[in-house]
Design a protein that fits this description.
The chain is α/β, with parallel strands linked by helices and about 450 residues long. The chain is built from 19 helices and 14 strands. The protein folds into 4 domains: about 130 residues, Rossmann fold (3-Layer(aba) Sandwich), CATH 3.40.50.2300; about 160 residues, P-loop containing nucleotide triphosphate hydrolases (Rossmann fold); about 70 residues, Helicase, Ruva Protein, domain 3 (Orthogonal Bundle); about 60 residues, Arc Repressor Mutant, subunit A, CATH 1.10.10. The relative contact order is 0.08.
């Protein structure tokens, strides 16, 4: 018979207290193991990692915080509850920042211990369900997207909900975030997936040809119009028209687009006839459309006509581990196409890619991976295969930026330089202290202590 009980490790050096806790928990649905030193805890975890760790902070051979730091470095998925008679706000904050789930002060009341354990069990179950859901998404790309981060899960839900409707969708996001992939996903999940999907880049077409490209023209309508030609709207009839970089459209043409959206009819250039069409409109921009409206470059009435269902695509730097999922898929795809033997990324390369800011988003990542695969041989993409600026440590890039920003640089106290380096690293990592600590080659607790000391000094 399979034992489905959670494994709990109690690290407590006082035998009488350990026995008391065991008595408290003897009827609970868990399997409890007790050790009395930090070294014994590390050895037990190394061979039989528990689900939950009850950790006393004061041990005969080491501090419990050292065990928390070790768990953090090893990235072990163990839910930790800290137990101590020496509790303070600072200790609690440090413990939580190193990954502790909860914090209990001695002496422990039996109900407090049981409630904390029950809540922790529920927390683990919910996390496991979420991890399973994320794995399913990551294992099966969503309509061309790869990644299971929370921001992207929100995007997937919006696509699923918006796709069956005929309402206009307005996609925003930085260049390279996948706006056309999003538009195609909406089309494929719509009620008209067998109809045409026509993409029109409003920034790539000269102003004087844009109306013809959109609505078509008749023979002789202008110089060079040698025959009748249907525009993008006609070609998309019965399907979806994706208008990328919509904010680049000329104001005069915007009024004609608005009239088409209101009536469902178009008039080709040089024609006196109105043509009824059935087209689902999806548009996108890498600008802030409201700013364009405020600056008078985009019609307000057109904005509200188009901005029915907004979808914002997050930049790659906000998508966490999606960077590695996408990079691995790109390596394998490029290897197949280039007949190379690459299968993935080295651990050092993963760390470098994860720490980088990705101003060019997924498109930049595609170029980096393609460059490495084409120009090198091997099974794993190594650090020395990456092109600039990924070919140098991120902390060196930060240092270079610091020097450039401050030339000619005066002599300043070392503490000032240290604070500047920490603040720049945290800003570069979008507030992720653990990632900033890795770049600076210090522990996260060091950075947290520095931040706290600066806050106290300011107060």
């Amino acid at each position: 018979m399979v034992d489905n009980r959670l494994n709990v490790l109690l690290v407590e050096d006082t035998a009488s207290l350990a026995a008391l806790y065991q008595a408290y928990l003897q009827d609970e649905p868990l399997s409890l193991t007790v050790v009395n030193t930090g070294q014994a805890a590390i050895e037990h975890i190394s061979h039989h990692a528990p689900d939950i760790l009850l950790l006393d902070l004061i041990l005969p051979d080491m501090q419990g915080m050292e065990i928390l730091q070790w768990l953090h470095r090893e990235k072990l998925n163990i839910t930790t509850i800290v137990i101590t008679a020496h509790g303070s706000v600072d200790v609690a904050v440090d413990a939580m920042r190193l990954g502790a789930h909860d914090f209990i002060n001695k002496p422990i009341e039996v109900e407090r211990l049981k409630v904390t354990l029950h809540n922790t069990m529920k927390f683990r179950q919910l996390n496991q369900m979420l991890d399973s859901y994320r794995h399913d998404i990551a294992g099966a790309p969503f309509q061309g997207f790869i990644g299971a981060s929370l921001p992207m899960q929100k995007v997937y839900r919006l696509i699923e909900n918006a796709a069956p409707s005929s309402a206009t969708v307005f996609i925003t996001g930085e260049s390279g975030t996948g706006k056309e992939v999003c538009a195609e996903a909406l089309h494929q999940r719509s009620a008209r997936p067998d109809g045409p999907f026509i993409a029109l880049n409003c920034a790539a077409i000269p102003k004087d040809l844009m109306e013809s490209e959109l609505f078509g023209h008749m023979k002789g309508a202008f110089t060079g119009a040698l025959q009748d030609r249907g525009g993008a709207v006609i070609r998309a009839n019965g399907g979806t028209l994706f208008m990328d970089e919509i904010c680049e459209m000329d104001l005069e043409l915007q009024s004609k687009l608005l009239r088409f959206l209101q009536t469902g009819q178009i008039q080709p250039v040089g024609s006196s006839q109105q043509i009824q069409v059935d087209v689902r409109i999806i548009c996108a921009t890498n600008r802030d459309p409201l700013v364009e409206v405020e600056q008078g470059r985009f019609r307000e009435d057109l904005y509200y006509r188009l901005h029915v269902i907004p979808i914002h695509l997050p930049p790659l730097r906000e998508r966490g581990a999606d960077v590695l999922s996408i990079a691995t898929a790109l390596v394998r795809q490029a290897a197949r196409e280039e007949n190379k033997s690459f299968v993935g990324l080295s651990e050092a390369t993963k760390d470098r890619l994860q720490a980088y800011h990705w101003p060019g988003n997924v498109r930049q990542l595609q170029n980096v991976i393609r460059n490495a695969v084409v120009l090198h041989e091997g099974e794993w993409i190594e650090l020395d295969m990456l092109p600039a600026p990924l070919d140098q440590p991120i902390n060196q890039q930060l240092a270079g930026e610091w020097v450039q920003d401050n030339l000619p640089a005066p002599i300043v106290p070392l503490a000032t330089l240290e604070r500047k380096a920490i603040e720049r690293a945290i800003s570069h990592c979008q507030g992720n202290v653990s990632r900033a600590a890795a770049l600076l080659e210090v522990s996260p607790s060091t950075i947290y202590r520095k931040l706290q000391s600066w806050d106290n000094a300011h107060a």
